[in-house]
Amino acid sequence: MHAPDTEFDADDNFANYATDFDAGDGIDEDATTEQLVWQLLLLLNPGDEETALQQFGEYQEATADAGEDEFEPAWLLKDIIDWKSGFQVHDDDAAALVESITELVARWNLELDWGVEDPTDAEFLANADTAALIRTAYDGLRPHGYTLWLWETGTETTAGWITLSRDDEAMRAIAPALGIEVRTGEG
Q1: Prediction pTM value
Q2: Which intervals hold domain DUF6630 (predicted)?
Q3: How many domains is the chain partitioned into structurally?
């Protein structure tokens, strides 16, 4: 991993953007993709700038020799954050969805109530509807101040991440600026 270059200093540019974002201000039209990626990673790793910086370094390494039009930030980030700060599972894989979201919320010492005693029970998972599980996770996170987001991948997968609810407006601005279509897990 290498430190952000002189054009973009992760500690200086938009340092408090994620928590001080004003939806009325919108995104700085001069913001680079790299700056927007940094802000997204801060949102995806609330209270964990070290992980955001490590993931940002991986992003910089992966894009070092590529022009901005040679890759889609969303797909590159998906691989960098998978099972650390985000998830992507097949649409009908309830077991992987429950497992990945459970692992993500454990970062904040939270446990979700999936509506059953054992959410890993094979019978429960065989009959589980992933859309209903997503709503359950969304509803279970809101009282704790978190929002479950889904990324519209255009594939037969469900992908997303969890952010602080206070950063909802920032997510609604930053993700589209990176070409990432998101919606909450609310339904």
Answers
A1: 0.85
A2: 37-184
A3: 1
